[in-house]
Amino acid sequence: MKTFTKTLIAGAMLSSALLSTAVQAAQKIGVVDVQGITRSLPQFAEIAQVVTAEFKDQIQEVNTQSEEYNFLVQKLQRESATMSAAEKTKLEDQIIALQKVLQEKTGPLQQNMQRREQEEQRKILGLVMQAVEKIAADGKYDMVLNRSTTPFAKPEFDISQKVLEQVTKAQ
Question: How many CB atoms lie within 10 A of CB 155?
Fold first, then answer.
């Protein structure tokens, strides 16, 4: 009786293992290079231009003040030997004040520009993800993996070109 039970359990486990392997083999898996697709889109290349145009007045103001700062520093270096102590102190104070203003404007400007670039990148990534979902649904894929997290996949599993075509068509 014990032998029969052991044989029955072993047979059940073996058939279960074979069945799960057969089920796994029937899954349709795709791999997509999300970063590659995102970077190949023309909108991605335009992000920097769009953001720069959006902040052009602030950038111009910072550049003007930076040029003025550099001019004053060069003036101090050139003429410090012939300046009186009062003129030298006054120029140094101007340089310090201008440097402080530049730091106060440059930091937030860079942060705002970076935030806007990230917003635009998220929009593009959203379009790519919608295309991945559509291709996965249309192709009846059980699983789609990101190429950057998949060390190896056969080329026939790569659906990146289909996704790129879908994103381009959607626009």
Answer: 6
